[in-house]
Amino acid sequence: MNGKSRKLAALGIAALITIAAGSTANAAQCGNTAAGFPAWVESFKGEAARAGISQRTLDRAFRNVSYATKTISLDRNQKSFKLSFDQFMQKRGAATIISKGKRLKQQNAALFAAIESKYGVPAGPLIAIWGMESGFGAFMGNQHTVSAVATLAYDCRRSAYFTEQLYALLQLIQKGWVSPDFKGAAHGEIGQTQFLPANVARFGVDGDRNGSVNLGTAADALASTANFLRGHGWSRGAGYQPGQPNFAAIQGWNAASVYQQAIAKIGAEIDG
Predict the structure, then answer these.
(1) Which among 226, 140, 236, 234 has a CA at the least distance from the CA of 184?
(2) pLDDT in tens, 182-194
(3) CATH number of 81-139+202-271: 1.10.10.10, 3.40.190.10, 1.10.287.3240, 1.10.530.10?
(4) Which fold has domain 3-75+141-191?
(5) Residue 49, number of CB atoms within 10 A of its CB
(6) What is the C-alpha separation between 201 and 191, in angstroms, rounded?
(7) MF terms per GO, please (predicted)?
(8) How many CB atoms lie within 10 A of CB 260?
(9) Tell me: the pLDDT tens digits for 55-89?
């Protein structure tokens, strides 16, 4: 797929998300226990088919779907965001991320220079996100992604938000960008910097120029992350610490203030 085609495909995904979430998402009734999940899946599949998802895609995507108990448990108990900043930095292994991040910046100098040239985002915050999200690609998750996202779409707590993510994921599967049996993080995050499906559709780019978008590779994940930050207002050359112009773009990455501060702090240490 060439660059123009990928852009059109992404636009198609975004359009379907908007149409489907706006017109059909409320029909399938949410629930807070596993009991209603199978019926919800069948109802949702009907809605998705009417919204333009092919029957083949639905059959493949939901073939091995199940209620993701671990996802719900983790969603209810995100304790790390309740830590102090110092506690959070220690729990996330900030010192290790900084040390390894400096080496990776040197080893991949050409890649980071190309990304900064195109998107205006320096290496530091990208490496901070990369290290905190997946340990630099060492662990990208082991949860069945369709099950995780479908469970959160069914769950009443954030049903509308994750219904949007589910439609995006189905479109990614239909386009061949993601396998139906793909495994990622507990909330459906994908790849080395852990993009939610709708963000793959909106900001995913072919960083290694091999003709496809695969956030399991470092080049695609880092370029896509830079594109995300630019899409959230990143200004070339401006600072990214709290109170500086680009901190708002970092805030777009994660809603937790300790996480935002950690990206800024770790990034600054790596950038020197």
Answers:
(1) 140
(2) 999 999 999 999 9
(3) 1.10.530.10
(4) Helicase, Ruva Protein; domain 3 (1.10.8)
(5) 13
(6) 13
(7) peptidoglycan lytic transglycosylase activity
(8) 18
(9) 999 999 999 999 999 999 998 886 666 789 999 99
